[in-house]
Amino acid sequence: MDIGFIGIGKMGKHMSSRILDAGYDLTVHDLRREAAAPLLEKGAKWGDTPGEVAASTRVVFSSLPTPQSVEEVVYGTNGLRAGWKEGDIYVDMSTNSPSLIKRIAGDARAMGVAVLDAPVSGGTKGAEAGTLAIMVGGDPASLESVREVLETMGRKIFPVGDVGFGNVAKLANNMISLACNSISAEGFALGVKAGINPQVLWDIITVSTGNNWCLQQYPNTTFKGNFEPGFRVDLAYKDIGLALALGKEYAVPLPLGIAVQQDLHDTMEAGFADKGVDAVILPLENVTGVPVRLDE
Q1: 137 in Cβ contact with 163 (< 8 Å)
Q2: What phi and psi values does residue 54 have, to the nearest 5 degrees?
Q3: Could you tell me which of 68, 12, 76 has the C-alpha nearest to residue 44?
């Protein structure tokens, strides 16, 4: 099976590498050719445009930062539509707008092309290790056609229903995760300012009802002052905006989601847009004057 992959970023570089290492013929494209250099050195082919990638393969995956990026890759000059052939499959693994991917799927269907939305959870570590959770919306037969390729990237593949539902699941997950991230930062800023040792507080909470995935990252991130991005603040802000837009579409009030959006906005305004989401604690530390760190 000839595979295409578009978007060789922090996630895409690992995901595409795993496909290549599994023995598939791979053609890649990115706005920056240098991003694909390690893949090209290992035998991947280069496509000058998304349309060229589509024309030379039967299945194309994409991992892109924003819905606007996905829209440009599909509909732009020399986009995927320029190279699609009847029977092709397009799998978008971005965190995307459900309404956009539904529109893309409808237009693709008219050309005989199947579309799956398959956003992932697990971060860059999961992408590198091939242990991502993959939420797939779309035609079950198309999913089965690409399941073995998806299994090179993910340990758990969840069919969730119609196209678009993959992103509904991902946005719900991210909203919950980001809310846990924000409240963990507030709890630790409070506890440490009041005088509790961060390690003692962490030991208590991680075996109590406040435990959550975000908090479990603290020993490698917040406690070390390591805010290098696995999941950037600005991308988290994009995701919470997509979740809130979905809430409006379905008339679901999301007051905590709005609070998280404001938290991320304030973090960006403080100059931390390109840091990892754990950086939401940094503005709080500036207010309290007490960093939540452990001595080496």
Answers
A1: yes
A2: -65, -40
A3: 12
Cα-based distances in Å from 66 to 91, 133, 193, 203: 15, 20, 37, 37
pLDDT tens, residue by residue, 106-129: 999 999 999 999 999 999 999 999
Is 293 inside a domain boundary?
no
Residue 296 lies in a domain: no
**pTM for the full model?**
0.94
Indicate whether 149 and 243 sit together in one domain: no
- The span from the CA of 211 to the CA of 216, in Å, is 8
* Confidence band for 295, pLDDT divided at 50, 70 and 90: confident
**CA–CA separation, 59 and 40 (whole Å):** 19
Q: Are strands 2-6 and 114-117 parallel, antiparallel or unpaired?
A: unpaired
Most distant pair of Cα atoms in the chain: their distance: 65
Q: Give the model confidence (pLDDT) of 5-43 as tens digits.
A: 999 999 999 999 999 999 999 999 999 999 999 999 999
Q: Are residues 98 and 187 in the same domain?
A: no
pLDDT of 296 strictly over 70: no
- Specify whether 193 is catalytic: no
- Residues of the chain with pLDDT > 90, as a percent, come to 97
**From the candidates 10, 170, 238, 275, which is the catalytic residue?**
170
92 lies in the same domain as 14: yes
Alpha helices by DSSP H, the chain: 12-21, 37-41, 50-56, 67-75, 98-109, 123-129, 140-153, 165-193, 198-205, 213-216, 233-249, 255-269, 281-288
